[in-house]
Write a structure and sequence with these properties.
Helix content: 40-55%
Number of strands: 19
Distance between the termini: 58 Å
Shape: extended
Strand content: 15-25%
Largest sheet: 8 strands, mixed
Number of helices: 19
């Protein structure tokens, strides 16, 4: 993704909090990030590049496009980012790839419940409040709860039978007044359960009694001249005022839920889907529906609900929709919320849908502009080369060898006047001995198009050969042998004067140096040359390493490969002891290799 691409989408990037995804050409998510202002965060990737980390430059270079999801707050963005990174494991994310989870406060399902921190959510009926993105803030909340209500911290099984049989004794927590001794019957279960009910209210955000308690304690410490304790409580009070116990992305009261929003737009309708599992937003999708005159918005939404629930294998017992619909599935309840968390989720879905439709419109306008640009170039090329059809699909070949060693060839593919790198192909020359570019070209062209014909793949409208009349004639031999000369146009481009040769015509043509079609042909030629040189360099290096070991008398390619696989390089093979070598390749071969590298000893 280039700075030019970024500038084209600049006005489409939202300025709200949310997450952004860098996605490659194959649709693979490369990176998931969060931002308080998505637009400002994205702009940092395309600013001054001097101080940019290599990883950042690599990410931008390999990305094909960006995707966004808007949320209500920076905390929501953080939680959604965590969920997506754990789901997709993007290659460029580092900090959140581990299995670390956020902190919860658990109210255990047991007699005389304990209240404690945990990072694991176990579906055993216990109540989990959170997640808390800051353990510091969560600890403040839990500390306040412990000051307000004395609770047990032991893990004893406080069954009625165990208490009656006096199986336990009070511990230090009782003596320092942090526990009222339910283990020995000094506190009734009903009194304890009343405290738990109050704790649930506090943990869910009812902070008024907590604030009043802190303020009264703070004044008490101040009157006693205990200013350090008063300051400590003041800091906790300030943290508590800034703290939000609830999150839109991870709900404490909602478990499995599907949320749907719909929007009409001319002849189409769009439906956004949020999938909530165990309170977490784990997936989103938006589908486009072609409207039929006989279909009402209600019918469109019903169709989308059934389609999306099937697509994502949803078994959520409740769905949230903007208006009443007839649910097809039994035991599934449809709700049109007016307030509360579910209404906020519906608002979030509608907000994302509005942005999606706006972005889609701008993308469509951008595609039309780009398509017009590509078609203009292809029409120019069609005219310059006097073709009957537009060359939507072009392939270019180049050979590479040095003094006849490691001969290879490359084939690069352009579609709509742009590189299609996933279709590039490399060739090792198999049938030609020595530095014969003409025969090598004949071989690779025949291999390439014989395979395309056999597999029923689409053929290019234009083939460009890097070279003059000799290489062009050789390539045409293979094309004629396959009976494709009427289906594909072949041209050759000579480097010195950028001459374009046609088969059977000894006089080349010269395309205007400023022509867009010549620039595309030059790009093809340069890309094929780069790809061939790179492949040739890799093959030559590999063979040089192998040849060093196969130069040892009595050592063949099989033993050489075994040594390289085990030790990694010729240098490391040389540094091995005789014992290490003989253990791997036997006494005889081990001595040959050892003596070869240590013959002077």
């Amino acid at each position: 993704m280039t700075t030019k691409d970024y500038k084209e989408i600049l006005d489409k990037i939202p300025t709200e909090p949310g997450i952004y995804k860098y996605v490659d050409e194959e649709g693979t998510i490369l990176y998931v990030g969060k931002a308080k202002n998505i637009k400002k965060r994205i702009s940092s990737y395309f600013g001054v590049k001097k101080n940019q980390h290599f990883k950042t430059r690599s990410l931008v270079r390999n990305a094909h496009h960006l995707e966004f999801t808007i949320v209500d707050s920076e905390q929501d963005a953080l939680l959604l980012e965590n969920t997506l990174i754990k789901k997709y494991l993007p290659r460029y994310n580092v900090n959140l790839k581990d299995a670390k989870s956020y902190t919860y406060i658990c109210i255990k399902k047991e007699r005389f419940p304990r209240v404690f921190f945990t990072r694991k959510v176990i579906r055993d009926g216990s109540l989990y409040l959170g997640p808390y993105t800051s353990k510091f803030r969560a600890r403040i909340l839990l500390d306040i709860v412990k000051k307000l209500f004395t609770l047990r911290t032991c893990n004893y099984k406080l069954s009625e039978e165990n208490i009656q049989n006096e199986k336990f004794k009070v511990c230090l927590e009782y003596h320092i007044k942090n526990c009222k001794g339910p283990c020995v019957g000094l506190e009734s279960q009903s009194d304890y359960d009343n405290k738990i009910s109050q704790i649930k209210n506090v943990l869910k955000g009812n902070f008024k009694p907590v604030k009043e308690y802190l303020e009264s304690m703070m004044l008490l410490y101040a009157d006693r001249m205990e200013f350090e304790k008063a300051q400590e409580l003041q800091l906790k009070l300030e943290e508590l005022k800034n703290y939000q116990a609830k999150s839109m992305v991870m709900s404490n009261t909602i478990e499995d839920l599907d949320v749907f929003a719909i929007m009409d737009e001319d002849e189409k309708a769009y439906v956004t889907y949020l999938k909530i599992v165990n309170g977490a937003l784990i997936n989103t999708d938006t589908i486009e529906l072609e409207k039929n005159l006989t279909l009402l918005q209600k019918d469109l939404l019903q169709f989308a609900v059934d389609n999306l629930r099937t697509k994502f294998n949803s078994v959520a017992p409740e769905i949230v929709v903007p208006f009443e619909i007839d649910v097809i599935e039994e035991k599934v309840k449809a709700l049109v919320p007016q307030r509360g968390e579910k209404k906020k989720l519906l608002d979030l879905a509608e907000k994302n849908l509005k942005y999606y439709v706006l972005q889609m419109k701008k993308d469509k306008a951008s595609r039309i502009t780009k398509q017009t640009s590509a078609e203009r170039i292809l029409n120019t090329m069609k005219k310059d080369l006097q073709m009957d059809v537009l060359p939507y699909h072009i392939e270019c070949f180049d050979n590479s060898n040095i003094q006849g060693t490691n001969p290879v060839a490359s084939c690069v593919v352009f579609k709509n006047a742009k590189p299609s790198k996933k279709d590039y192909r490399k060739f090792n020359i198999k049938t030609v001995v020595g530095p014969d570019d003409f025969a090598s070209m004949e071989e690779v062209v025949h291999r390439r198009y014989r395979r395309l014909v056999e597999e029923g793949e689409s053929l290019p409208q234009l083939i460009v050969i890097d070279g003059g009349k000799g290489q062009l004639n050789s390539a045409m031999k293979s094309i004629k042998l396959l009976g494709l000369e009427e289906k594909i146009l072949l041209i050759g481009i000579a480097k010195r004067l950028e001459e374009i040769y046609f088969y059977g015509d000894p006089i080349p043509i010269y395309i205007n140096k400023k022509s867009e079609s010549l620039k595309v042909i030059q790009h093809l030629r340069n890309e094929a040359h780069r790809f061939a040189i790179s492949f040739h360099r890799d093959q030559r290096s590999k063979n040089m390493i192998q040849s060093t070991l196969t130069d040892i008398p009595g050592i063949g390619e099989k033993i050489a490969n075994k040594l390289l696989t085990e030790f990694g390089s010729v240098t490391k093979v040389r540094d091995q002891s005789l014992e290490s070598l003989t253990q791997l390749i036997g006494n005889s071969n081990g001595k040959k290799v050892f003596n070869y590298f240590h013959h002077s000893d």
